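Changelog-adjacent note: as of this version, every example in the card shows the full chain rather than a window. The one below runs 333 residues end to end.
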Amino acid sequence: MFLRLIENGGYITLVNYDINKTGKKVTISTDKIKRIFLEFKRDYQLWIMVLPAIIVIFIFNYIPMYGIQLAFREYDFTKGIVGGKWVGLKYFKQFINSYQFERLIRNTLAISISSILVGFPAPIILALLFNQVKNQRYKKVLQTTVYLPHFISTTVMVGLLVVLLSPNTGIIGKMLRLFGLDDVNLLGNTSTFVPVYVLSDVWQHAGWGSIIYLAALSSVDPQLYDAAKVDGASKWRMIWHIDIPSLVPTMVILFILSMGGILSTGFEKVYLMQNGLNITVSEVIATYVYKIGLLSNQYSYSAAIGFFNTVINFSFLVITNWVARKIGNISLF
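Full-length structure tokens:
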């Protein structure tokens, strides 16, 4: 068997011959190559602008993937990443069979699903409400007000929660005592940890997340609203039949992306909100990987857990993308 390149009428033909001269023929059009080159030449300024981002992603996201093999090796300080003994799926089996596996998956899914159910529609509703405000000055003040919490650092945010939710000195704690709920520790109660995490996250990021939906609403043709008014449609009817359908493509894309991080809850906030009273519901995969890998020096085990987490997230992303493409013909790829 051998390969042969021949030129025929502007096409480069790759012919795969076997011993009997009955191989397959594959053609690659030079027109496609020329079109790609012309598009790159036309948009070279955009490519130059995005080049630093590509370099950063390549350095910090693709090159470190070389260390994935650590999950399949017995890590040895003296031999480096590639010098350890190959153990295959040992650490994956160890994690799945561990007594903490079920609790970690349950806690992670509880926080992630609750965040999606409450946090995903929040910026959509906020954008729809902002779109109904006609006074531009008042609208800008409202938007700036709800955007500001996004710029609060996670550490400061958790500090605010600790101060405000303190059962003895916090404002919310004192308000609860007025209703006869004495000594209610919202951060130390296992039944209130997830609601506090989710609601505080919505308060902090819903305003910022509404920006992309406001951008989608700004592209709606004003003639649609005029036609709806002529037909006697109320504001609710216009929201239901004009605004929401215009947001559906954006909603689907962002939902697919959110499902790609179903097991990737924010490490910093969960870790800072943890204490001895809520550890049974606040211990998630991200915090467990940190404790096992960096604090306990079990690098191979933590790498296996992290890789397991990534595979599950990627699977959810692909499945959700496939379902969205089949149902609504909207997808990432």
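Structural remarks: The beta strands are 2-8, 11-17, 25-29, 73-76, 80-86.
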